[in-house]
Design brief:
Blueprint (H helix, E strand, L loop, with lengths): L1 E6 L20 E2 L2 E2 H11 L5 E6 L4 H11 L2 H4 L2 E5 L4 H13 L7 E4 L9 H14 L1 E7 L5 E4 L2 E5 L6 E10 H13 L7 H7 L5 E4 L10 H17 L1
Parallel strand pairs: 1-4, 1-6, 4-5, 7-11
Antiparallel strand pairs: 2-3, 6-10, 7-10, 8-9
Helix pairs in contact: 4-6, 6-7
Length: 238
């Protein structure tokens, strides 16, 4: 069994114009909330057996109702909605623990940011192929710009970009590996924004799946405009 965790509980403070604005994952993109884009792709994929969507506590009922209303029954029945925590790491951990409560926990799990709406079935296939062969993987793209370390607005060092990659999601691992790695990180108060780093912290080797420049993460309002343009282009190609 292959599961997915979709963390969608963040406040998205960098995206908001005011504190009362909705979290970015619930903002509309081409008529659908951002979180539903990647969720729909995961739910429609034949290799994904179960999905845990992690949302703010106050949004549990609304999200469950929206999923039941929008997605076909054979897809919505794959989905469990549960409450998140204060950080992305807490929320992913909550989702993993929820999967661990199942009568038959999954063999593998992938984690994908709800704020990356343009997930494709092809990328899911590539991640599944890598995680089942290697045990752990992350999507990444090569760095094409020159990267420099700087302090006080002064360049200190130019890094060799041939050894650098930009990390995306999905990230995936054997379920027990990632669950135990999250438990270890929580016990040690080890914090990070990235599940591959949590796996590395527990001694696991994480393989790389080549990602896509279209796999954009929406962080700022400008990113939403970019995704709107990309979504239109990708729809025309399909």
């Amino acid at each position: 069994m292959i599961a997915a965790v979709l963390p969608a509980a963040g406040a998205g403070e960098r995206f908001k114009h005011s504190p009362t604005d909705a979290p970015k994952q619930f903002i509309g993109l081409e008529g659908r909330p951002i979180y539903l884009w990647s969720l729909s792709t995961l739910a429609a994929h034949e290799k994904i057996d179960i999905i845990v969507v992690v949302v703010p506590q106050l949004s549990l009922d609304a999200v469950q109702a929206e999923i039941s209303r929008v997605l076909p029954a054979n897809q919505s029945e794959k989905i469990i909605v549960t409450a998140g925590g204060k950080t992305r790491q807490n929320s992913v951990h909550n989702g993993l623990e929820r999967l661990g409560e199942l009568t038959t926990p999954p063999a593998y799990v992938m984690v994908h940011d709800a704020a990356r709406p343009l997930l494709t079935a092809k990328l899911i296939d590539q991640v599944v192929e890598s995680v089942t062969a290697n045990g752990a993987c992350t999507v990444a793209i090569p760095v094409t710009d020159t990267i420099k370390k700087a302090r006080d607005n002064v360049v200190g060092e130019t890094l060799d970009r041939s050894e650098l990659v930009q990390i995306q999601t999905p990230q995936a691992a054997r379920f027990e590996w990632l669950l135990q790695a999250h438990r270890k990180a929580a016990a040690e108060n080890f914090g990070t924004t990235d599940d591959s780093t949590i796996l590395e912290h527990s001694g696991h080797k994480v393989h790389i799946v080549t990602g896509s420049p279209y796999n954009v993460k929406i962080t700022n309002p400008e990113d939403l405009s970019l995704c709107q343009s990309l979504a239109s282009v990708l729809e025309q190609r399909s």
